[in-house]
Each structure stands twice: as C-alpha cells, then as structure tokens.
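Students often ask why inverse folding is considered easier than folding. One informal answer: many sequences map to the same fold, so there is more than one right answer. In these notes we will look at a single instance of the problem. The structure comes first.
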C-alpha cells in the first residue's frame, strides 16, 4: 500500500463512541434473528475486511470500535494505515472471535468505513488535481450527514483535504441570504465586525465583482467567490491583490480544479466531498 497523508488531528474516543453507540443500537435494537437462528453460540470465526477496488483507507478505529461495542472480546487487527492507498484485493482489517458477534457488528462497521473511505478517496482525487506550485487547498463544507459530521470531516483530512468551519458558531460566514436579510454586503460586514469577538475573522460570500469590491472596502478577511466563472475568478484575484483570503465555492468539479487553482485562489471548497460521494466497496470475507 502506498504512503498515507497524515490527518491533522485524530478523532476523539468520545466522538467515536457516541457515533458507534447510536449506529449499533439502531441496527440491533431487535437483535439479529438470522444469526441467532443459524450460528452456534460458541462458534468462532476469522473475517477479513477486503478492498474490492482501489481506495484511500479511512475509519480503522471506528471499524474496530464497532466490533468491540458489540462484543469486547473480539480482536481487530489493522493491516492498513489511515490515508494509505489500497489496491483491489488488499486486506485492510481482520476480526477474530465469536462468529455471532462478528456477524452482528458486520453491517454497521462496513457502513462506517465504506462511507469514510469513499470520502477520503474522493478528497485525495481533488487534492491530487491541484497543480504543483499553486497554493490552493481543498476544503469541505457543512453539507454533511446529520450525526456523522465529525467522522466525515475526519475522512476529508485523511484524504489530504482541509475542513471549513465546523458549525455556525465557529466563525462568521456571511452568505447571500444574510446579505439579503440585513441590507447589503457593507452593512452585513460592518454589523458582523461590531458583534464578533476580536479573535474572529469575517468571511463574506459574493457572487459578482461589484460585491467583491464592497467586501474589500468593508474590511472582510475572507471572501468566497460563489459560482463565478473562470474569468471572473481570475479578475477577482487581480482585484484583491492578496489583501484577503479568496475562496472559490459552488459548482466545483474535479475537472475544474486545476484551472481554478492556477488563478491564484487560496481555497477551493467542494460540497460534493461529503453529501454525494460514492461509498467505497469494502467487504468482510469469512475464512471457511
């Protein structure tokens, strides 16, 4: 397996435990009728999680915790480092112990790592599309699955990307509806500057070069260029002259990343990294 991109910070155990507890309860609240009927209570097994196609590995700690949440006597062995590129057929993790317990935890554990590895894989593709020598970083958005934001944002980091603000209380981000509701770009920025803590930067979304000029004059720290075409983005970079952090958002696809990065923007945020990503194909194969 190829080398990993180290996540900037790991998931806290309490975050993992909370997500796993909810998912396991959701799946097993009524037991597992098939497993209990077909498998002897003392039968033991060894099962391997295997990549069915090339992917970026993510979620090993969550995978292991799911099994031990169901049965703390289960043993989970890791074969793949977080962020490593795995080829089809690669063994990622191995589980040993009571067959019933493995079967009862299997679906939930796979749901987690299939989604997390899918996000990490797509993020790596976007990161790899940024041309060498450009400064743009790939970032996610708040378009996450309710209850799974921490895991999905961790997967973005494992894939080599960066996180946007975690929640509305983490930073000021003035969007189009804030502008419409408060009376314009300048007014929104001035009001935010007056109300926010002195440690908080002010970010504002604009959809035209005229609004960009307003944001620059009003003293925004970060400006999001929303759904602008390539020529407008390049013009915005020239007008800003490095005075603010410029972020491109809206309608960003993999085939646009290279040309957007070459304009000189600082951040390219990609909503598609989390809500619409294809899950990775990972299966749990039992030894005969």
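Output (designed amino acids):
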């Amino acid at each position: 397996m190829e080398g990993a991109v180290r996540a900037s910070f790991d998931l806290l155990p309490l975050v993992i435990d909370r997500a796993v507890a909810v998912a396991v309860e959701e799946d097993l609240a009524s037991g597992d009728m098939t497993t209990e009927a077909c498998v002897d209570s003392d039968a033991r097994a060894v099962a391997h999680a295997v990549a069915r196609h090339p992917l970026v590995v993510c979620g090993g700690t969550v995978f292991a915790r799911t099994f031990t949440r169901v049965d703390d006597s289960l043993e989970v062995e890791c074969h793949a480092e977080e962020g490593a590129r795995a080829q089809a057929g690669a063994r990622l993790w191995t589980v040993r112990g009571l067959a019933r317990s493995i079967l009862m935890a299997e679906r939930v554990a796979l749901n987690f790592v299939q989604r997390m590895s899918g996000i990490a894989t797509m993020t790596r593709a976007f990161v790899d599309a940024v041309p060498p020598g450009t400064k743009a970083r790939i970032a996610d958005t708040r378009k996450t699955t309710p209850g799974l934001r921490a895991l999905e944002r961790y997967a973005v980091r494992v894939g080599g990307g960066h996180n946007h603000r975690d929640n509305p209380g983490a930073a000021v981000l003035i969007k189009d509806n804030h502008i419409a509701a408060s009376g314009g770009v300048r007014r929104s920025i001035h009001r935010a500057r007056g109300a926010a803590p002195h440690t908080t930067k002010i970010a504002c979304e604009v959809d035209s070069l005229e609004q960009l000029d307003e944001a620059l004059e009003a003293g925004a720290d970060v400006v999001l260029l929303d759904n602008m075409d390539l020529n407008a983005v390049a013009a915005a970079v020239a007008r800003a002259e490095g005075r603010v952090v410029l972020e491109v958002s809206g309608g960003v696809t993999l085939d646009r990343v290279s040309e957007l990065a070459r304009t000189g923007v600082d951040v390219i945020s990609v909503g598609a990294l989390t809500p619409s990503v294809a899950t990775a194909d990972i299966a749990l194969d039992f030894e005969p």
